[in-house]
Amino acid sequence: MLFNRSVNVRKENSSPPIRIGVLLSGGGRTLTNILDRIRSGELNAQVVVVIASRPCKGIALGEQANIPTHLIPYKQMPGVQRYSDEICKLLDAARVELVVQAGFLSLWHVPPRYAGHVMNIHPALLPSFGGHGMYGHHVHEAVLAAGCKVSGCTVHFVTNEYDRGPIIVQKCVAVQEGDTPDTLAARVFEAECQAYPEAIALFSQGRLKIDSHNVRVSPSACDKSAASRA
Fold first, then answer.
1. Catalytic annotation, residues
2. How far are the Cα atoms of 101, 125, 129, 168, 222 from residue 155, in angstroms, in the given order?
């Protein structure tokens, strides 16, 4: 299963739903959002496997949705490479086309065959407020401490450097007077609920192409048809 990052691997309007593997470490809110979008018909996708790095509520959510769900405890693995190998075995077995990190807090090495096929969402506008240790409330606290007037979220492809992968979608959120990390986090998560499904849909339609470190988004079939009629 080798992928070429310079070409689209899915064709727009393909009928089979994209096969998604979800990696999580917490409550599973992002998993719930994705499943809700699938059930509503907004996403042509199927979550075929859920992998957790530690005991968490997200495991129960995966099981309740009748999705094969696995716990691979990060702290019990002898090293990052062994941990990564165990994750990839499950992804390969499930024939995953796109890996979606959903609050996944453990380090794993993305092998070449999954390059350009792993996404993450970060609760700030990268490249600001990213990197090792910048997750959850740590990010929102840093945004407020810096006096930023806007924050937001970033969906990006995952590389083996923290928060350095090519950016796919970003959404802005205003920082309001009197904001706390909790209030800002709540509004940023609302933006995440829009941005992640949008990025997944673009991938499933074959409209994303990685060009050097930039992600190019091709027009949709509807856009192309409208342009041809103009």
1. 122
2. 10, 9, 14, 6, 24
Cross-strand pairs, 153: 171
Range 173-180 contact pairs with CB under 8 angstroms and sequence separation of 24 or more: 174/149, 174/150, 175/143, 175/144, 175/148, 175/149, 175/150, 175/151, 179/144, 180/144
Under the banding of pLDDT at 50, 70 and 90, the label for residue 35 is: very high
Cβ neighbors of 73 (< 8 A, separation 6 or more) are: 53, 54, 55
User: What pTM did the predictor assign?
Assistant: 0.89
pLDDT, tens digit, for every residue of 44-65?
A: 999 999 999 999 999 999 999 9
d(CA 106, CA 80) in angstroms, rounded, equals 9
- Is 123 in contact with 185 (CB distance < 8 Å)? yes
| Strand duo 98-102 + 18-24: pairing | parallel
Q: Which helix (H) or strand (E) element contains residue 45? A: strand 45-52
Give me the residues paired with residue 119 across strands.
100, 157
